[in-house]
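Consider the tokenized backbone below.
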């Protein structure tokens, strides 16, 4: 892209100033419309070191309402960042509806730096590119405006700017070793930048190449591009995004009606196995911490199926400093204002730690689907988006263990009745539980489809037959132990 790029002609000074004044005012006005229409806008500013990204960003936001934008200076990942999945620090910063998020540096800088300095081989580079394309497509499909700008300058111009910055003690700190290395290896960096731009240029998230030799001209280009892109996004009625075909291997799985629920343990068998399994899991927790292997455990299941008691038996075997249980309820307003996976990305464990989710992102294709909390296109897209999310976790090195806790309708009724008639258990039963029970058959259809479409080779489902809670608890413990031992 960079090699074939033909720069726009820079206007004369008078015209430039006139257009810039107009563009600044238009962007300020568009910010109000963005807020009213609840359009989330993510702006990536990338490019050569010393190309002027920071100074142009400073001028752009000067004309905007600071209550409705944020700036994230990404820089090189810290040691703490490297303990999270690759996309974590980007997904966790996506904007709310009606707001802007500006990234000063970002994905291009991180991926190309790693590739240029041999921290990524060619296969690793291709894997990162796949992640980036999925990330940007997922946001675009969910109504985000994704704007990506590459600030381009020549080798000669970059060298001149670096020398000017270094000559003044008040600005010399702005020149990094990476900037100097880049200039000394300009042609090599140009090749990698060009490859990255080509590989991540998508119709819904295209690259805008900015001639950055003159900073005022660069500001005008970015501002006018932003105004046009916002106008296009605001004028388009929200359309259903095209469904992306699943490309992951799916394993066969039984329908719920085909699962036998007669498995059970005696009290004596249960106590013996519980003690043995918890001792074994406790030792394994120390080992995954030492080897920095993250574990993500998901629980979904019918109301009153026994998820809480199941989680308790796993958690009580773990070092409390190395795990966290996340009970997932209806999203809060600030969570609903972002992509539905955001609240799960922000709850992921660091490497070596364990996260246990009591209900998960699969609510999208169950309760949200059946109760009309999202559109049909939203939940149909979600199967692939969730598979891609779990693939990111798997590629990061996480062990992903998904449990469906299964009971029959009669068992649920007996447990509901017991809760309702037992004062100390009444907090566990709600009117919503009874309403959901009336839709049992509809939920069963949705669950069967969910299991079928998300039973991937890297994150398969494990069904826990829970008419006998004791049996389900031991099976869950044995499954977690087996999956960790398999990885070790």
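A designed sequence for it:
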């Amino acid at each position: 892209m960079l090699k074939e790029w033909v720069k726009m002609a820079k206007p004369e000074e008078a015209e430039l100033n006139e257009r810039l004044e107009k563009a600044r005012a238009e962007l300020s006005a568009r910010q109000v419309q963005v807020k009213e229409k609840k359009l989330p806008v993510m702006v990536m500013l990338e490019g050569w070191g010393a190309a002027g990204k920071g100074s142009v960003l400073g001028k752009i936001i000067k004309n905007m309402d600071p209550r409705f934008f944020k700036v994230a200076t990404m820089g090189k990942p810290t040691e703490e960042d490297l303990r999270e999945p690759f996309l974590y620090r980007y997904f966790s910063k996506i904007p709310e509806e009606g707001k802007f998020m500006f990234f000063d540096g970002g994905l291009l800088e991180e991926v190309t730096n790693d590739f240029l300095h041999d921290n990524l081989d060619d296969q690793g580079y291709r894997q990162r590119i796949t992640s980036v394309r999925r990330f940007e497509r997922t946001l675009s499909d969910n109504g985000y405006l994704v704007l990506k700008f590459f600030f381009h300058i020549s080798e000669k111009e970059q060298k001149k700017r670096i020398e000017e910055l270094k000559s003044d003690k008040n600005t010399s700190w702005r020149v990094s070793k990476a900037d100097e290395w880049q200039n000394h290896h300009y042609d090599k960096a140009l090749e990698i930048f060009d490859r990255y731009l080509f590989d991540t240029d998508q119709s819904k998230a295209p690259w805008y190449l900015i001639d950055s030799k003159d900073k005022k001209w660069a500001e005008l280009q970015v501002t006018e591009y932003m105004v046009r892109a916002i106008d296009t996004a605001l004028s388009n009625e929200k359309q259903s995004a095209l469904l992306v075909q699943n490309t992951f291997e799916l394993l066969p799985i039984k329908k719920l009606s085909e699962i036998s629920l007669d498995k059970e343990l005696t009290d004596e068998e249960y106590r013996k196995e519980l003690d043995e399994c918890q001792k074994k899991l406790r030792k394994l927790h120390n080992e995954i911490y030492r080897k920095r292997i993250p574990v993500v455990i998901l629980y979904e299941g019918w109301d009153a199926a026994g998820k809480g008691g199941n989680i308790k038996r796993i958690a009580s075997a773990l070092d409390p400093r190395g795990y966290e249980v996340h009970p997932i309820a209806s999203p809060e307003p600030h969570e609903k204002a972002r992509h539905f996976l955001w609240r799960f990305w922000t709850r992921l464990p660091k490497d070596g730690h364990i996260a246990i989710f009591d209900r998960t992102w699969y609510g999208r294709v169950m309760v949200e689907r059946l109760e009309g909390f999202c559109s049909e296109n939203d939940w149909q897209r979600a199967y692939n988006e969730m598979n891609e999310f779990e693939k990111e976790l798997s590629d990061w090195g996480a062990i992903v263990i998904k449990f469906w806790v299964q009971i029959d309708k009669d068992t649920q009724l007996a447990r509901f009745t017991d809760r309702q008639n037992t004062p100390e258990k009444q907090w566990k039963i709600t009117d919503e539980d009874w309403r959901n029970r009336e839709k049992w058959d509809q939920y069963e259809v949705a669950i069967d489809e969910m299991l079928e479409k998300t039973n991937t080779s890297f994150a398969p489902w494990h069904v826990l037959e829970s008419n006998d809670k004791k049996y389900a608890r031991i099976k869950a413990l044995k499954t977690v132990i087996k999956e960790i031992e398999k990885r070790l």
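The two ends are 44 Å apart (CA to CA).
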